[in-house]
Specification:
34% of the residues are buried. With 477 residues, the protein is an alpha+beta fold. Helix content is 40%, strand content 18%. Bound molecules: zinc ion and manganese (II) ion.
């Protein structure tokens, strides 16, 4: 081992691919629309067939879409692609795998090398391979320590890609960033659906103080959890070492409810799985034409989009990074920036739109307004017809329920008053407040704020406070 950092982290991430059917049979990957998972409405072991139940004599047939999707990911991450697609049996005994083996790839994975680019560094990849999801073990509910476990094969045979990194990450935060970046790429490629696909990571982590003795944490779901689990595990390892204990290589389970990792077993090695080449699947040639055809379908990825935004729209780096981080946000920005000053559009989409969406807990799929609303609103703002404050209020209302912006402004009298009108209101306010004027004239500059407030109230906030101040000072002189 040749590490130098205090913490060393490597990840093995399992990503469920957004296909219609399973990896080796025609069973549907997801429950029917009206039978959503986790609501208990899908009957167990119904979305199954002899192949995904592992009946003797049943033969797997490779789902081509899975290969296309996995290839897309491998190409987007600059991996080397294998010339041949070969599957292997990973043998183990456990009730979640009725065949007593999982069909995976071992000797020759689909892809090797490649990397995921984070803000400050590249995380190198060892490999990306395709494998099937095992069944789900269901612990009878309401029983503290049940004496038996149930198996639901509905999930069995779902298509996964496993992305294995080099131990290049040095903090839980970096592991989190890796997961986020990977999810962003998957979203851009359209091979992962955030609502129906599960992403799970196994994390290898070790610290300098122990001489880098690795623990593997199993089955951590999502990018927030990965940071929590690793932070806990690093603290635990540090404490063990400072208590004078010697760490051994082990596999631990993450308990997200309690927020701790628990010992499962001391680590088995890969040889224990007794891999053999899967004889029921023929070797598939990954022809150059196939690879190139998939490469042609690759969209522009977030990192390229960010650079293009900086170059074409001359917006700042952080704005560009946020705007390109979600494919829908990037698309929306581009449409708005074609019609409105791109810098103004960037500021409003990044700060105000995201603020309002966060506040209302809505996602882009639920967003009811489109570019035409934003263009109209920002046009009114940049033409000086409405103020920042009015634009913000309208945006808050629009996100709730779209409406005709012009009509609304007219009806509510929110248009910036012209100077004449504003002067009249100022004069009225001055007339009504002789005491405040005296106060101001005798040197209390702050009393002007009261007058500004009065004028703003009359205009329902449609005037800019700076304009009002200017006119008031003029009139009082
Ligand atoms: Zn099946
Ligand atoms: Mn795996």
């Amino acid at each position: 081992m040749n590490f130098t950092t205090d913490i060393v982290i490597g990840l093995e991430v399992h990503v469920e691919l957004n296909t219609k059917s399973k990896l080796f049979c025609g069973c549907s990957r997801r429950p029917n629309k009206n039978e959503e998972p986790n609501t208990g409405t899908e009957a167990p072991n119904t979305r199954t067939c002899p192949v995904c139940l592992g009946h003797p004599g049943s033969k797997p047939v490779l789902n081509k879409t899975v290969v296309d999707y996995a290839l897309k990911l491998a190409l987007a991450l600059d991996c080397d692609i294998s010339k041949e697609l070969i599957f292997s049996r990973k043998s183990y005994f456990y009730p979640d795998m009725s065949k007593n083996f999982q069909i995976s790839q071992y000797e020759i994975p689909l892809a090797t090398n490649g990397c995921v680019k984070l803000a400050e560094k590249d995380v190198r990849l060892v490999r990306i391979h395709i494998e099937e999801d095992p069944a789900a073990l269901v612990h009878p509910s309401g029983m503290e320590k049940s004496t038996y476990v149930l198996v639901d094969y509905n999930r069995s045979g779902n298509p996964l890609v496993e992305v294995v990194t080099e131990p290049d990450m040095v903090s839980p935060k970096e592991a989190r960033e890796f997961m986020k970046q990977l999810i962003s790429v998957l979203n851009y490629l359209g091979i992962y659906d955030i609502n129906t696909c599960v992403i799970k990571a196994d994390a290898n982590v070790s610290i300098k103080e122990s001489g880098y003795v690795r623990a593997e944490i199993k089955n951590v779901t999502g990018f927030k959890e990965i940071e929590r689990a690793l932070s806990y595990e690093i603290d635990r390892q540090k404490k063990e070492v400072s208590d004078g204990k010697k760490l051994v290589q082990e596999t631990r389970a993450w308990d997200s409810d309690v927020g701790i990792t628990r010992l499962m077993r001391t680590k088995e090695t890969e040889e224990d799985y007794g891999y053999i080449i899967e004889p029921d699947l023929v070797v598939t040639n990954m022809t150059d034409e196939w690879v190139e055809r998939v490469r042609d379908t690759l969209p522009e990825l977030a990192r390229d989009k960010k650079e293009r935004f900086i170059k074409d729209f001359r917006i700042d780096k952080t704005d560009a990074a946020v705007l390109s981080s979600q494919i829908e946000l990037g698309d929306l920005y581009e449409k708005v920036a074609e019609k409105i000053d791109p810098v103004l559009a960037a500021r409003w989409l990044r700060r105000e739109l995201l603020r309002v969406m966060n506040y209302n807990e809505i996602d882009f799929v639920d967003l009811k307004i489109d570019e035409s609303h934003l263009i109209e609103l920002l046009k009114l703002l940049s033409d000086g017809k409405i103020t920042d404050n009015v634009a913000k209020k309208i945006l808050e209302k629009l996100v709730d329920k779209p409406f005709n912006i012009m009509e609304y402004i007219e009806k509510e009298g929110l248009k910036v008053s012209d100077t004449n009108e504003l002067s009249k209101i100022c004069e009225q306010v001055i007339k009504k407040n002789p005491k405040v004027i005296d106060d101001y004239k005798s040197g209390n500059v702050k009393s002007l704020n009261f007058l500004i407030g009065q004028v703003m109230r009359h205009t329902k906030g449609a005037a800019s406070p700076d304009d009002v101040k200017k006119i008031l000072v003029e009139c009082i002189k």
